[in-house]
Amino acid sequence: MTDEVWERAAQIYAELYVKHFTVADADILIASFCILNDCTLVTENGKDFENIDRLHFENWITA
């Protein structure tokens, strides 16, 4: 984890807080890492990530 990942995670947390969305801290860090590294997150639990802007994710279980 880099400082940039932590800073982006803090921004994501603030954006979600203003919108009254709650996401686990670990999920925010995962999302931050994926956004900064231009990765697609593969998860079965898209509900936790759907409110995070600029995050691309896929569910390969239901695809």
Account of the 3D structure:
By secondary structure, this protein is mostly helical. Helices cover 44% and strands 10% of the residues. It has 2 helices and 2 strands, in the order ααββ. Strands 1-2 form a two-stranded parallel sheet. Helix 1 (3-18) crosses helix 2 (25-36). The longest helix has 16 residues, at 3-18. The radius of gyration is 11 Å and the shape is globular. The model has no long low-confidence stretch (mean pLDDT 94).
What layout of secondary structure does this protein have?
Layout: H1 3-18, H2 25-36, E1 40-42, E2 56-58
Parallel strand pairs: 1-2
Helix pairs in contact: 1-2
Record keyword descriptors for this entry.
mainly alpha; 63 residues
Name the average pLDDT: 94
Strand order of the largest sheet: 1-2
Q: Using the alpha-carbon principal axes, give the shape.
A: globular
Helix and strand pattern: HHEE
Instruction: Please report the total strand number as a whole number.
Output: 2
Please give the largest β-sheet: 2 strands, parallel
Unreliable stretches (pLDDT < 50, length at least 5) are: none
The proportion of residues forming helix, as a percent range, comes to 40-55%
Instruction: Please tally the helical runs, counting DSSP H or I stretches of 4 or more residues.
Output: 2
In brief:
With 63 residues, this protein is mostly helical. Helix content is 44%, strand content 10%.
